[in-house]
Specification:
The complex is a heterodimer of chains A (344) and B (585).
Chain A lengths: L4 E10 L2 E11 L4 E5 L6 H9 L6 E6 L2 E2 L10 E4 L11 H10 L5 H14 L15 H13 L5 E5 L7 H18 L2 E6 L2 H7 L2 E6 L2 E6 L1 H6 L4 H6 L4 E8 L2 E4 L2 E4 L6 E7 L4 E4 L5 E10 L3 E8 L2 E8 L12 E6 L5 E2 L4
Parallel strand pairs in A: 3-8, 3-9, 6-7, 7-8
Antiparallel strand pairs in A: 1-2, 1-4, 4-5, 9-10, 11-12, 11-14, 12-13, 14-20, 15-19, 16-17, 16-19, 17-18
Helix pairs in contact in A: 2-3, 2-4, 3-4
Chain B lengths: L18 H8 L4 H29 L10 H8 L1 H34 L5 H7 L8 H12 L4 H10 L9 H25 L3 H9 L4 H30 L2 H5 L6 H12 L4 H25 L20 H31 L15 H9 L1 H31 L5 H10 L5 H12 L15 H25 L3 H9 L4 H29 L3 H6 L8 H9 L5 H37 L1
Helix pairs in contact in B: 2-13, 2-16, 2-17, 2-18, 3-13, 4-8, 4-10, 5-14, 6-8, 6-14, 8-10, 10-13, 12-13, 14-24, 15-24, 16-17, 16-19, 16-21, 16-23, 17-19, 19-21, 20-21, 21-24, 23-24
Classes of the chains: A alpha+beta (344), B mainly alpha (585).
């Protein structure tokens, strides 16, 4: 039986430094949710609080509507996969997986059946009697996963589970992980600092920085409608331009854009590099081409508008028009692709 | 790494042109390195392997000169020797038990709980080791003996005595108090290496309390405990001086010593006992290796950083504090006792000495300065030999592919398992008939043989220190210097040796400090009073009631020397770690 998780106004600190500051969010039942943020953003701390490692200074944590804030880790029935896997080196793979079941007072036959099923699920049946040290990183990762899901936890917590794997395996495993979560229909919370990973696996993402939630949304929403500077730059590349809005017209040094839906006053806008088109200058925004990098699928141009550096990605195909360094070009910007950021 | 060749394809290094040079190049070694390995091998052959083989050979040779087990038959038919054998096993086993009862709670408090007296426990890890057990033994008899301080007080207040020091009890008590830090240190290290996620993942899966401890924490800490316990067993089994000073002769080491010194070096029984002692020593180590097989967890765990510490609660804190204070008081009692003895006039049948004096120190100053200078000379030379041999061997093992280098390394390390007494007997027997030219003195009892015995026995520590120092020194540092045109010798003198200095210095000080209080081989190899070192002097003084004062004064001096050296070694190692971590990472 899987459950949703509710975090209500949770604050947490070590000594004098605040690690989490008034964090609230809801994870729906069966949802694959990600905490995304740089190191030190508080994402792992929040995950550990859900598992019961540490108690929040303020606020409540509810799992399936039940307040677990003061419950010790062993009474919570949430499963956590640790970044280091934390497989016990003195037990075989099967013993590692059976450990949580033994604590639940199941019959020996029942335990054996469930261990077999869990190992089959992660395709490690042949390795049941090996020691963890005899397995590769990817196999250890799957043992850690089997050990956790075998107890049928209400919530599956994953702390940077792929960070110890090499790049190729990381991509494979995240696909597997996603498929497994779908198959089991289990609520999962995934901590990562890698935005591509979060985008690939999560239904929704909470972006954290400095112990605060910056934005919550689907990967598409976060990318297309970033709420602030941090989200705009942490998820992908963005040109941030500070200026002024007056009657639907955004103006900055060298820039003028019509059709911006924002109240009058100072504003910061974000435009993705692929949302700007280059063309011959004929009025509008003029830019000097400083440098270009060929990236394969795109050509990345670095330009200068006034004193401001702008990045533009133009899709590349055979015979695509390219612009020479040193020339002046015009920037074509569709106002519908422009995000107006909340605070500066 | 193949040696560089010039643009014309010709050899650029002079030794490469010859056939021998090409062979050495394949082993990635220079002739000097090959020569160094041969030199170390010869040293070990002459002063470790041959003496040991000689002991074994004599033990297995019958009266007719052929291979025979007759002496072993005699051994097990003699009831005194049978009793000695079981006594040695009993004492070593009970010492491990008593030492565990002290060390395991201390290590647990340190690793798993927030306890403000943690510094006290760290102190407890060192204090007993700076006092050799045979020095402490005399003081402990005065404090815990039949008519010692504690029993006199018990008699006055409650009308009964506790036989702390009666017979084998005394040996067990003294040894356990001296050696429990080995278990404490090894177990603490093991506990500190457990990644806290190991514990958290078990909690996450529903385990806590005793289950958590017995299923996860204890098995993961077991390797450290077993390593410490095996070490204690072997050390106690081999100790000669403590039973002798406590007048307990019905154990193996004293029996071997008495046979050799009273019956003579031709008596085969001393050799038989030696072989049995080696067998037990190796047996204990093998057993621990067997227990630890496949359990070398340190390398399979990521992270580390120790378990998360929890609160002890009020009663827990009180109990922990009481335990630590009692343990500290008992551990310090030999130190206090020996100090009181060294400044007391008469201390017999009394809680404390009758009056105080500095006379014993004056006596030591008048009579016994050569003891101290001998110790400094012998142990200094032994330490020097150790770091030279240790560094050479470590370098050859880690940086070349010379054949046999691992074998030489294993031979050097095997000295750990060889009792000092046995090595002493072997050296005595092997070199007794060699005479030094002109003086006609026997090589075996020439003072330099003591230096060699010390060097051989401490070589494993120096080798380990040098290996650790060299392992931290990435080979690219040497290759960078070579690519800039420095030859092997220049690389060695300008890069390798300077960077290893700290590690080698720590190795030297450790060798020096432990050799300064060696008494097993010393008792066998000292032939003339003027050649005797400090440890021998203490032993001789302690034999008579009148000599106990000066003996204690010498003991205090020995403790101070060892304490200073240990502190220095610790500081050097600590500074070295600090430097390395700042510069390299």
């Amino acid at each position: 039986m899987t459950s949703g998780v509710a975090i209500e106004h949770v604050s947490f600190g070590y000594g004098g430094t605040a690690v989490l500051d008034d964090v609230s969010l809801d994870v729906e039942q069966g949802e694959f949710f990600a905490f995304l943020g740089p190191s030190g953003s508080g994402k792992t701390t929040l995950l550990r609080l859900i598992a019961g490692f540490g108690a929040p200074a303020q606020g409540r944590i509810l799992i399936g509507g039940r307040d677990v804030t003061s419950l010790p880790p062993w009474s919570r029935n949430v499963g956590m996969v640790f970044q280091s896997y934390a497989l016990w080196p003195h037990m075989t793979v099967a013993k590692n997986v059976a450990f949580g079941l033994e604590r639940r007072k199941l019959s020996r036959k029942e335990i054996a059946r469930k261990v077999d099923a869990a190992l089959e699920l992660v395709e490690l049946t042949a390795f049941a009697n090996r020691r963890p040290a005899q397995l590769s990183g990817g196999q250890q990762q799957r043992v850690a996963l089997a050990r956790t899901i075998v107890i049928e936890p209400e919530v599956l917590l994953l702390d940077e589970p792929l960070s110890n794997l090499d790049a190729k395996l990381r991509v494979e495993m995240r696909t597997e992980l996603k498929a497994l979560q779908r198959k089991l229909g289990i609520t999962a919370i995934y901590v990562t600092h890698d935005q591509e990973e979060a985008n690939a696996v999560a239904d929704r993402i909470a972006v954290l920085d400095g112990g605060r939630i910056q934005q919550i949304g689907t990967p598409g929403e976060l990318y297309d409608r970033p709420a602030n500077r941090f989200v705009a730059t942490f998820l992908g590349t963005a040109n941030l331009i500070e200026g002024h809005v007056q009657g639907g017209r955004f103006a900055a040094d060298g820039f003028a854009l019509d059709g911006i839906a924002a109240p009058d006053g100072p504003a910061c806008i974000a435009i993705r590099p692929q949302d700007i088109e280059l063309g011959a200058f004929s009025g509008g925004v003029a830019a000097v081409l400083v440098e270009r990098e060929f990236l394969g699928s795109t050509m990345r141009y670095r330009l200068r508008v006034g004193s401001r550096a702008i990045v533009v990605d133009a899709p590349h195909h055979r015979g695509a028009k390219s612009y020479a360094v040193g020339g002046t070009v015009g920037l074509l910007i569709d106002p519908r692709q422009v995000s107006v950021l909340r605070e500066n | 790494m193949t040696p560089p060749r010039s643009a014309f394809g010709g050899p650029t290094l002079p030794f490469q042109g010859r056939e021998r040079g090409r062979l050495l190049a394949r082993y990635n070694a220079s002739p000097a390195q090959a020569l160094a390995l041969v030199f170390v091998a010869l040293f070990l052959l002459a002063f470790l392997v041959v003496p040991l083989l000689r002991v074994i050979q004599i033990a297995f040779t019958g009266p007719d000169g052929a291979f025979s087990l007759v002496h072993f038959g005699d051994f097990f038919r003699t009831s005194l020797l049978r009793e000695s054998f079981w006594n040695s096993i009993y004492v070593a086993g009970m010492t491990v038990l008593l030492a565990s009862l002290i060390a395991v709670p201390l290590a647990t408090i340190l690793a798993r709980y927030r306890f403000r007296g943690a510094a006290l426990i760290h102190t407890l890890g060192v204090v007993p080791l700076v006092m050799p057990p045979f020095v402490g033994a005399v003081a402990m008899q005065l404090i815990y003996g039949r008519n010692g301080t504690i029993n006199l007080l018990l008699m006055d207040w409650f009308g009964f005595r506790i036989p702390f020091m009666e017979g084998l009890n005394g040996v067990i008590f003294v040894e356990a108090l001296h050696y429990f830090p080995f278990i404490l240190l090894n177990l603490s290290a093991s506990l500190a290496n457990i990644d806290s996620a190991m514990e958290e993942s078990a909690q996450n899966l529903g385990a806590h309390g005793f289950t958590l401890f017995s299923r996860i924490v204890f098995p993961l800490a077991l390797p450290g405990y077993v390593a410490g316990a095996a070490l204690v067993f072997v050390k106690v089994f081999d100790d000669l001086a403590t039973p002798l000073l406590l007048n307990v002769n019905n154990m193996l080491a004293p029996q071997a010593y008495l046979k050799i010194t009273s019956v003579g070096i031709a008596d085969p029984m001393g050799y038989v006992i030696s072989v049995i002692m080696i067998a037990c020593s190796l047996g204990a180590m093998l057993l621990s290796a067997l227990v630890l097989k496949g359990r070398d967890f340190a390398i399979t765990q990521r992270g580390g950083g120790g378990l998360s510490r929890r609160s002890l609660g009020r009663w827990g804190t009180a109990a922990a504090a009481a335990f630590v204070i009692v343990a500290l008081a008992v551990s310090l009692s030999p130190h206090i006792g020996i100090f009181l003895l060294s400044i007391g006039t008469v201390w017999s049948f009394a809680e404390l000495p009758d009056a105080y004096t500095v006379q014993h120190y004056v006596t030591v100053y008048r009579e016994s300065l050569p003891l101290i200078s001998n110790t400094v000379l012998y142990c200094g030379l032994a330490g020097l030999i150790d770091i030279v041999l240790g560094a050479t061997l470590a370098y050859v093992v880690l940086r070349t592919k010379l054949p046999g280098r691992r074998l030489v390394e294993q031979a050097a390390m095997s000295a750990v398992a060889i009792p000092g007494l046995v090595l002493g007997i072997g050296l005595l027997r092997t070199y007794y008939d060699f005479q030094i030219p002109f003086t006609g003195e026997s090589l075996a009892t020439f003072w330099f043989m003591l230096v060699i015995a010390y060097a051989v026995r401490r070589l494993p520590y120096a080798l380990a220190a040098a290996t650790a120092a060299l392992q931290q020194l990435h080979v690219s540092l040497e290759e960078a210097a070579e690519s800039l045109g420095a030859g092997k010798l220049r690389v060695l003198s300008r890069i390798v040796v300077p960077l290893m200095t700290g590690g080698l210095l720590a190795g030297f000080v450790t060798s020096f400090a432990t050799a300064a209080v060696e008494l097993s081989a010393t008792l066998l190899l000292v032939a003339r009073a003027p050649d005797a070192p400090l440890s021998y002097g203490i032993y001789v003084y302690m034999q008579s009631a009148a000599g106990r004062g000066p003996g204690a004064a010498l003991g205090v001096i020995a403790v101070v020397v060892v304490a200073i050296a240990t502190y220095a070694a610790f500081k050097i190692a600590e500074r070295e770690r600090g430097l390395k971590s700042r510069e390299m990472f």
